[in-house]
What we know:
The chain is mainly β. About 10% of the residues lie in helices and about 40% in strands. The chain is built from three helices and 17 strands. It has helices spanning about 1-15, 260-270, 280-285, and strands at about 20-25, 30-35, 35, 50-55, 65-70, 75-80, 85, 90-110, 115-135, 140-150, 160-170, 170-175, 180-185, 200, 210, 215-220, 225-230. Strands 1, 4, 5, 6, 7, 8, 9, 10 and 11 form a nine-stranded antiparallel sheet that branches. It has a four-stranded antiparallel sheet with strand order 12-13-14-15, covered by helices on one side. A hairpin with a 2-residue loop joins β2 and β3 (about 35).
Amino acid sequence: xxxxxxITLCIAMLLCVSVKAQIVxxxxxxxxxxxxxxxxxxxxxxxxxxxxxxxxADVHSGSYACRxxxxxxxxxKFSSSAITLDSGFTYVVSYWVRGHGYLLVSIYNGxxxxxxxxxxxDSLGWIYRTGQLAITTSTxxxxxVFTVKITNSDKDDIxxxxxxxxxxxxxxxxxxxxxxxxxxxxxxLFWDFxxxxxxxxxxxxxxxxxxxxxxxxxxxxxxxxxxxxxxxxRNGDDFFQGSVNNCSTDSFNYIWKINKSDIDTxxxxxxxxxxxxxxxxxxxIN
Length: 286
């Protein structure tokens, strides 16, 4: 048992655990057909066409944002075109907002509308917002919905920009020899924040141990300063505590497996400069 566990852990240490998110919807309101933003004004939209406006005065990025106007107390909706969501995955929704009014963001999953976040917006600066939901039933008719009311002209009503939906996967099971172990993008190994261990020997036996572990990574920068990722406790789904800006963290919360031989082969081709006839694996490109 001890020898098998040690060998498995050594193999796991040699594996490259990478993280990535698959983007399923990305829209910065840069393309319009007439007065309508492309990939918007879905079936749930109740805002009038003259209340959905191209905005150029202060955008988050690019040339355009979208201005939503509804100065009434009753709510009006602005939805995307149909989006496909797959069962068994978590989806992260992010966007930037500024202006003055009330904004609620939700996803219609083909059957029900699930609220993500929202509230009063009163800011001339762009605010980053994000939310996530787990999908239990696949659908090809989902829509992202922005619900607005009591917008105010003092800050040009509500403006939104750079809307993004990520399909994320936090865990992957690695089965080698007679061991099955759960690895994660947040580097808290062998569990998924539930009450049971996910390190099983022999695999398929139901005998599990090692509730949690972590890989520690360190290195020196160009100034010979040590940088260390050494997780001791984790209650979030990102690998490290924060990044340069908070909108980039969720896009890396994904995990997949890659063989050490693929890494060795890539390193050899890269450093020798002999790339002729060599196809870089997708897991390395990504």
